[in-house]
Design goal:
Elements: H1 3-25, E1 28-33, E2 45-47, E3 50-51, E4 54-55, E5 64-71, H2 88-97, E6 104-105, E7 113-116
Antiparallel strand pairs: 1-2, 1-5, 3-4, 5-7, 6-7
């Protein structure tokens, strides 16, 4: 088998795995900040039913943490708290959100964290 064809086959298998992972293995849900500390702990976030692609709570403003979209434990339905520990990306978004006045993190592409006014 030519090397180019091998590479294409490997890429197709990897892409298939990522699609499978996003649908069946690592589902995401919206979680609202419940005021507990530390904010980077999974227990500080509680499930909130979504409205479309957005959290089911009004998250408008640049002041305090509001909601995050993150993985939940392997189950058919979202669990009360996200998968522990939170992913390094989500923890980085939380830390960034605490030091910026942006409403959504990241600011480009699909947001995984929203903030609100007090």
């Amino acid at each position: 088998m030519p090397k180019t064809l091998q590479r294409v086959s490997i890429i197709k298998v990897f892409d298939s795995f990522l699609i499978y992972k996003s649908i069946y293995i690592m589902p995401r849900a919206w979680y609202v900040y419940n005021g507990q500390t530390p904010v980077t702990a999974a227990g500080s976030w509680s499930y909130i039913p979504p409205i479309g692609d957005f959290p089911g709570i009004e998250c408008i403003g640049p002041t305090t943490l509001c909601a995050i979209s993150c993985y939940y434990p392997f189950a058919e339905a979202p669990q009360p708290n996200p998968l522990s520990p939170l992913s390094s990306n989500i923890r980085a978004y939380i830390n960034l959100a605490q030091s910026t006045s942006a409403n959504a993190i990241p600011q480009t592409g699909k947001p995984y964290l929203y903030k609100k006014s007090n």
